[in-house]
Amino acid sequence: MSNLPPIQVGLLGIGTVGSGVFRVLQRNQEEIRRRAGRGIAITMVADLDTGRARSIVGDAAQVVADARAVIANPAIDIVVELIGGYGIARQLVMEAIEAGKHVVTANKALLAVHGSEIFAAAQAKGVMVAFEAAVAGGIPIIKALREGLTANRIQWVAGIINGTTNFILSEMRDKGLDFDVVLKEAQRLGYAEADPTFDIEGIDAAHKATLMSALAFGIPVQFDKAYVEGITKLQAADIRYAEQLGYRIKLLGITKRVDGGVELRVHPTLVPARRLIANVEGAMNAVVVQGDAVGTTLYYGKGAGSEPTASAVIADLVDVTRLHTADPQHRVPHLAFQPHAMSDLAVVPMERVVTGYYLRLRVADQPGVLADVTGILARAGISIDAVLQREADEVGGEGSTQTDLIILTHDTAEGTMNAALAAMQALPTVLAPIVRIRKEELA
Amino acid sequence: MSNLPPIQVGLLGIGTVGSGVFRVLQRNQEEIRRRAGRGIAITMVADLDTGRARSIVGDAAQVVADARAVIANPAIDIVVELIGGYGIARQLVMEAIEAGKHVVTANKALLAVHGSEIFAAAQAKGVMVAFEAAVAGGIPIIKALREGLTANRIQWVAGIINGTTNFILSEMRDKGLDFDVVLKEAQRLGYAEADPTFDIEGIDAAHKATLMSALAFGIPVQFDKAYVEGITKLQAADIRYAEQLGYRIKLLGITKRVDGGVELRVHPTLVPARRLIANVEGAMNAVVVQGDAVGTTLYYGKGAGSEPTASAVIADLVDVTRLHTADPQHRVPHLAFQPHAMSDLAVVPMERVVTGYYLRLRVADQPGVLADVTGILARAGISIDAVLQREADEVGGEGSTQTDLIILTHDTAEGTMNAALAAMQALPTVLAPIVRIRKEELA
C-alpha cells in the first residue's frame, strides 16, 4: 500500500450524480483505497447552491460558489465536471485542462460536440479526460470498447442507451398505451424530465452513439453527422404489430462499419424478440458490440441514476489515480486509438444506410391494393420478408372499408426505400401517411 | 505513434486458442497497433507438434519443441501460456516469471489452484500475469470486476461460465431430452469433449468462480473451498417442472458476500425465467455482477472458442504492452485489490449457505402425504413458496398410484434443508430419492 496522501478531487456541481459520487466515495472509501492503492478524497466542491452543497458534504470538503476556485486550487489533482451542457461546462473543462488538472466528466453532450477540441487540449497538456459515465451510466462500456476488445476489428455497436425512452417503450408495450399517455406517467414517476426533448427526440442517445462510434472505429466525434429520430411518433399499434411478427421496438443508437464509411444513427428499431437486447425492459440500458474475433458481446445495467452514474465516475477516478504519475504514453488513448492513428472514415449519409424496414400502410380494403404496393416494391428491387394483412376494421365514407397492411422488407438502401415510399404514398388507395420503422436483425 | 519496435511475444502451445491468437494478431495487426501505440508480434512458438505449429505460423515466427527455449530468449517480452493444466504449465509460468517475462494465460485451473503462489512470484519480480481469457472467454469480465466496478462493494457475482453445460441444458429444455442423450449429441457436435468430466461435473465453472470470487472480494484464490455440483443428475422432468413454475435451470457459478464470509459454489440453479441470464442459450456465457452503487450489471458473450478466447488473450497483450514500462505501482493489482490489502474473509461451509430450494418427491398418491411432508418443513422452520402436485401418473404394486410432488421453498440454510430432507426421505410414502435443486432469485 502506498503511503501517499489521498489524491484530491474537486467536484464541479453536486446535484444527483455529484451527491452520489460523494456518498459512494465516503461509504466505500476503504474498499476503494484497497483497490486503488491510495485514498481518493473530494476536498472541494463548487455549486451555485452552496447551502445544498454544504448540507451534502458537511465538513468533509470546502464548498465554494465559484468553479474557478476549484480549478485554481493547486492541491486539486482531478476535476470532476458534473454541470452538463455545452456552455460553462466547456469553458471550465478547457480551463481545468489548461491548469494541468485531470478531468472526469459524465457530460456526453459536451464530448459528442466538442470532444475533438477537448481531447486535443488534454493530449497537449499531458492530462487525462475520462468519461465512463458519459455512456450507459454504470455499465463499463467505454472500458470494454477501449480496452476489453482491443483485439477486434469492431463491426458494429448497437445500444439501448437512453433509459427514459426504453421505459416509455416498455410501458407502451406492456399496457398497450400510446406515447403521450406514457410520457406523462414517466414524468410523474421521475423517469422523464419536465422538458424531455433531449431524451424522447433521440438527442441524448445520439450523443452517446457518437462517442461509441469514435471509440469503436477510431474516428473523431461527429455528432453533427448523426441521423437522429426519436420515439414521439410511435403508436401502440406498431408495437403490437411488431410483436405479432416476432419483434420488439427499441430506440437504438447504432454505429456500423460499412463499405466506404461508418453509419451513425439513432431511431426506433424493430429487433427480433428472441435477442437478449430485445428483452431489456424499463429504464435499463444495454449495448451490443460485434467484433470480428469475439463475436457478439452484450453489456447491461442501469444507464442513469445517482449511484450507478457515480460508479462510473469513481471507476474513472481510480483509473486516473493509478495512471496519473505514469508516462502519458502508457495511458489508454482518449478515443481508444492513438491520436496520430485516427481514421478518416466518413459518416455515410442516411440515404446510403442499408436496413430492413417495417411499413404500415392504411389502405382501402379493395382488390388490387396489395398488388399495387408490392409492385412498387418489386420495381424498386425491394424484397419482401413478411406481409401481415388485417381484416378490414373500419367503415369509411360511402360504406368503404379500410385496413392495415404491414410489410417487413429485407435489407434495402434508405434512398431506395424513400423513393418507393413516395410512390406508394401517391397511390389513391393509400389513405394515411405510411409508417416506416427500420429493422435490424443484430445477428 | 511510438517508434518502438514491436513487443515480442512467445506462445507456449499453439492449439485451438493459440492459433486463434496468431491469426487475429496477424489479421488485425494494424488496428491493434493503432490502439496499443506499438506493434505486437508473435516471434516464437513452442509446441511439441512442431510440424503443425509451422503449418500455422509459416515463416512469421521461430518454432521450437522446447518451451524453455522461449523463456530463455532475451528478446521475448511476454510469454503466453496456452498449454493448460496444473503440471508443466505451472512450472513454465513460474520459470517465465523468474526470467522476468510478463505472462498472459488462459489457464483457469492453474490460477484457481496455484494463483496465490504465481501472483506472489509475479509481484516480487515486478511482472504482470494477465488472465482475461481464463473466465468467460471473450467477455471482458475480469476487466469489469477489476477496473470497471472499483467504486462498488460487490455483493454477489453469478455466472453461466461453462458453455458446454449451458448448451446441454438448453438442448434438454428445448427437446425435452435427458442428460445422457444430449451429452452424446454435444460430443458429436464438438460442444463437449471426449472426456467431459471437467465441464459436466462443474469443475471448470468452479475454477472460474474461484477467480471471480477473489477479484470481487479481495480474497485469495481458494478452489479447494468451493462447493461443486455438476449437471449429470439433472432430469428432463425437473427442467419441465421448473418451467411450469416460471424458472429455468442453469449451471451457475456463484460467489456472494454474506455475514462472516463469502459463499463460493457451483451447482444447477433455478433462476426466474424473466431474468436476462435465464435467457442465455446454447454455448453462450453471461455473468451478473451486483454492486452496491451500480446495482445489477450483466456481461454476455462467447465463453470459449478459438477467436473469442484469442480476443481476451490479445486484450491482455495490449494491456501489458501499454503498462510494461510503467511503474509496477501503477498497474492494476492481479486480484483487483492491492496485495497488502487482501481480505481474510473465509469461504463459508455449504451448510451455512442460504438459498431457496426446488424439491421433487416421488410419493404414494394417498391421503396425508402432503401433510406429512409440509409438516416436516414447518417444524424445520422452512417456508414454502409454491407447491405443484401432479395427478397420479403411475400404478405401482397392488393398484397403488404414485405422483410427483414439487415444492419451492423460500430462503433456507442448507444445513436445515439437509436435516429436513433426511426426515422426508425416511417417510414410507416417499418412494424415491428426493431431487433437490437450489434456487436463486438474482434480484
Automatic annotation (TrEMBL), chains A, B:
TM region positions: none
PROSITE patterns (UniProt xref): ACT, HOMOSER_DHGENASE
Assigned keywords, A-Z: Amino-acid biosynthesis, Methionine biosynthesis, NADP, Oxidoreductase, Threonine biosynthesis
Binding positions for NADP(+) per the UniProt entry: L12, G13, I14, G15, T16, V17, G18, S19
Binding positions for L-homoserine per the UniProt entry: E193
Keyword NADP carried by entry: yes
Annotated family: Belongs to the homoserine dehydrogenase family.
PANTHER family found in the cross-reference section: HOMOSERINE DEHYDROGENASE
Name of the protein in its database record: Homoserine dehydrogenase
The gene coding this protein: hom
